[in-house]
Amino acid sequence: MGHRETSNHSEVTDFILVSFRVHPEFHILLFLLFLLVYAMILLGNVGMMIIIMTDPQLNTPMYFFLGNLSFIDLFYSSVIAPKAMINFWSESKSISYAGCVTQLFLFALFIVTEGFLLAVMAYDRFIAICNPLLYSIQMSTRLCVQLVAASYFCGCISSVIETSMTFTLPFCASQAIDHFYCDYRPLQRISCSDLYIPNIVSFFLCSIIILPTIIVITVSYIYIVSTVLKIRSTEGRKKVFSTCSSHLGVVSVLYGAIIFMYFIPDRFPELSKVASLCYTLVTPMLNPLIYSLRNKDVKEALRKILGNKLFLFNSILTENRIK
C-alpha cells in the first residue's frame, strides 16, 4: 500500500478493499457466485437492449425508457463486479486512488440516474393509462429524450458533489475500506476529520433525490389505481396491472435495498455489504427477468428473434446437406 507522508496525515495513493470477511476457502465460491450473477446481468441486459432496438413494435416511449434502464443496470454493475471478482483472487486487494474515485463517481452517477429514470417510467405509465388519447402527443420523442437526459444530468450533478466531498476528506486512519467497492460511507469511516458537514450534505442529497422520485412514483400510481378501478372489464384490469407490476417490482427491490442499507448502523458492516449486493448486482440481474417474464410484447419479440435464428440455422444445415 503506497502513501507519501505529509504534515499530519498520509496522502493516500491507494486503498485496500477488505470485501467479505470470510475464510479464504470461500473466496472461490464467492468468485463463482459473482461470475454467475454478472454473466446473467450481461446476458439479460444486453439481450433486452438488442430486442428493443431490433423490434419495430417496441419503438414506444415505454421501451425507450426500458432500454435506458438496461443500459444503466449493465454499466453500474460493470463498475463493481469485475474489480470485486479480481480481488477474490488477489492477495493485495488494492485499488488505486484514481480507481476508487472513478468507481464511486460512476456508481453514484448510474444509481441516482436509475432512481430518476424509474420516476420517469412511472409518469409514463400514468399518462398511458390515465390519458391514453393524449399519450402520443404528450410523450413525444423530444420529451422522452429530454426526460432521460435530465435523469443523467441529475445523476451527474449528485455524483460530482458526493465524490468531490468524499475525496477532499483527509484519510488518516487505515486505508482499508471495509467493503467490496468504494462507497462513501465506508470511506468516511477511515477519515480522521469531522463528518458533520459531509453528513448534512449527504442527507440533503438523499432527500432531494429519494423524496421527489418516491413522490412522483406514489402519486402516479394513486392515479393509475383510481383509473383501473373504474375499468369494468376484468381482462382490462389484468392487462393494466400486468404492465405496471413489472415497474413496481423493480422499484420495490431497488428502493427497499437502498433504504434498508442506509438505515443499518455502521456497527454492522457485513449486513451493509449484503444489502449493497441487492442493488449493485441482484437488481440489475432481476430487472430484465421481471420485464421479460411479465411483458407479452417482449416475450413475442424474443420469440421472433429466436425463431429467425432457428430458421437461419436450419437453412444453413439444409444447404450443407445438399452440397
Automatic annotation (TrEMBL):
InterPro entries for this protein: GPCR_Rhodpsn (IPR000276), GPCR_Rhodpsn_7TM (IPR017452), Olfact_rcpt (IPR000725)
Membrane topology summary: Multi-pass membrane protein
Localization of this protein: Cell membrane
GO terms of molecular function: G protein-coupled receptor activity; olfactory receptor activity
Coarse class of the protein's main subcellular location: membrane
Annotated G-protein coupled receptors family 1 profile domain residues: 44-291
GO cellular component term, pick one: plasma membrane
Ranges that cross the membrane: 28-51, 63-81, 101-123, 143-161, 200-224, 245-265, 271-293
Protein name: Olfactory receptor
Organism: Bison bison bison
Organismal lineage: Eukaryota, Metazoa, Chordata, Craniata, Vertebrata
